[in-house]
Amino acid sequence: MMNDVKQSTAGNQVSSWRGPWTLLKKELLRFWRVSFQTVAAPVITALLYLLIFSHVLDKHVQVYDGVAYTEFLIPGLIMMSVLQNAFANSSSSLIQSKVMGNIVFVLLTPLTHLQFFLAFLIAAIIRGLVVGLCIYLVAMWFVDLTIASPWMLVAFGLLGSALLGTFGIIAGIWADRFDQMAAFQNFIIMPLSFLSGVFYSIHSLPPFWQKVSHLNPFFYMIDGFRYGFFGKGDVSPALSLLIVAASFLVLALITLKMLKSGYKLRS
């Protein structure tokens, strides 16, 4: 009798996660079926940045001793692409589902708000990391990048993509139209990305703008990720990791509250 109860409990636990696993597969297939647009296009864009900036500045700019500008540039381009694509994956999926009306089929399932969140979040992380890995492999044709701290790369890659994937869910829930979503991308994500030290060290800026840069969470993600390659950064990697982790926790709690209440999803 006890064995039957245990087997039944185990079976219920397995079946309770079949739904989020199915939603996760659906989200993964959604971006993989158009991989030329969702993976190849960001890689080509990053490659163009690399070719142009390295050609113009490689012999004229050196940020760290013993590190060529092209080497300095690559980690920033990788992380910028990871962040932008993690955001794009979760936000575009939600806004498309809302506009087309098929979000109702997900809401009718017995998924909890936590399972819903995890499925979209993991898919966003995977897309971001796939794009980043592809850019790294392409960049290896230009320079031989050494890795000083693999754990820092993993930590900032996962936390950064998770943070932007979570922010993408918030944006997708809030936005009702594609132009509202475009505003997030054009007026928040892009400016914060380009002003985060991808192409320069903040120490090259005047003191006022250095202080302003420290208010940008993207700066800590990119600087911490770059530290994983060179063992050098503009700020302490421990501080960067703390800020990124705290930011993710805050956004995750906000997202879970929005999902639990059904804000702009069930109304």
Q: Averaged pLDDT, please? A: 89
**Total beta strand runs:** 0
Q: Beta-strand percentage? A: under 5%
Instruction: Tell me the span between the first and last alpha carbons.
Output: 45 Å
Residue windows where pLDDT falls under 50 for at least 5 positions: none
The general outline is globular
- Helix count from the secondary structure assignment: 11
Query: Radius of gyration in whole Å, from Cα?
Result: 20 Å
Query: SSE order, as H and E?
Result: HHHHHHHHHHH
Structural class: mainly alpha
Counted up, domains total 1
Largest sheet: none
Task: Work out the helicity level.
Answer: over 70%
Keywords: Cell membrane, Hydrolase, Membrane, Transmembrane, Transmembrane helix, Transport
Transmembrane segments: 31-52, 72-95, 151-175, 187-209, 238-259
Subcellular location: Cell inner membrane; Membrane
Domain ABC transmembrane type-2: 33-262
Structure description:
By secondary structure, the protein is mostly helical. The chain has one domain (16-261). 77% of the residues lie in helices and 0% in strands. It is built from 11 helices and no strands. α2 runs parallel beside α6, α6 (113-139) packs across α7 (150-174) and α7 runs parallel beside α11. The longest helix is centred in the first third of the chain and has 32 residues, at 69-100. The protein is globular and about 60 Å long. The mean pLDDT is 89. Belongs to the ABC-2 integral membrane protein family.
